[in-house]
Amino acid sequence: MVQYASQPGLLMHLPTVEQVLDDHAQVLGPDRIGYRNHVYRVVNLCLAIEGGAPVELEKLAVAAVFHDLGIWTNHTFDYIAPSAALAREHLASRGMAGWIPEIDAMIADHHKVTSSRADPQSLVESFRRADWIDVSFGLRRFGLPRSFIAAVAGTWPDAGFHRRLVQLTIDRWWEHPLNPLPMVKW
Question: Which residues have CB under 8 Å from 121's CB, separation 6+?
Answer without folding.
Answer: 53
